[in-house]
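Chain A, query sequence.
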Amino acid sequence: MRQRSSAIGATSSLKVWFQRFSFVLLTIAAFGVLLIGKADTVMLSRLRIWVADSVGPLIHVVSAPVETARDTAGEVQSYFSLKQQVEILTRDNQALQDWEQQARNLRAENESLRALLKMTPSPRVTFISAPVIADASSGFVRGVIALAGRENGVVKGQAAMVGNGLVGRVQDVGERVSRVMLLTDINSRLPILIERTRDQAVLAGNNSDLPDINYLPRDADIKIGDHVVTSGVGGAFPPGLPVGEVAEVEDGKVYVQPFADLGRLEFIRMVDYGLPGVLSEDLGVDAAKQQASKPPSAAVQAPMPPKPATTKAKLKPAETPVEGPSE
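Chain A, predicted structure.
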């Protein structure tokens, strides 16, 4: 009994001694490990490799179920995600099929109505694409020079476009180059239509990046973001060509941001819609000569009346005085 009590006392004393001097002992041990590593790096490297070889297979065995569980969870999540995507695509496909059927019905109805109304087909559209070789803008005008002219089929008054909208119209045509007046030019006037409200107006250039809208109705409800397209009034351009969207509405003025980036034009497309609606004075074309140049099938001339030669012959004797008999 006494031996057991003495052993317990010795253990308690040793525990108290370690608690008091534990920090000192750990510091000494750390310095010892550092000294051993400096003294014999080869031995320390071998010890490190031995520990890694011993623990590596154990870590692999332990991590394998974790990786398997992680892969399984990812596959389950992917399955539910793919299932949801399949459901969405199925609904979209059904909606597209419904729209396709409606489009077919509307197309058939449109063709039948055109046949009933005997509508003339739209004119054939031709275009010429050309690179922009110079910026002809200045303090008073806004325009660009395109490398295509009369010998390429460019005609004054054609619409100038890029992929996302109208740029302007061809103003001057040379043999090999042509000048395009942009929508922002102060001389540019374009009949437009507000898509949402169906209000017609005129887009006027002002030599700034945002042309403004003139001649809007007083009760027009214009909002920022409204799309602006050509109205077709005047016959210069067909209706529906994209122009831009309303960017600012302030102090009763409405400003439009063109869809086309007019400051970074590299290629433009001159489009001929076959519409002779541009004013002949603006185009510099004589309407009489243009009419005379048409083929006989396009214009039928009325026969000219005969000259009144017989009338002059009948009046000639009446103008000569009748002489009496000589005495």
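The two ends are 203 Å apart (CA to CA). DSSP finds five helices and twelve strands in the chain.
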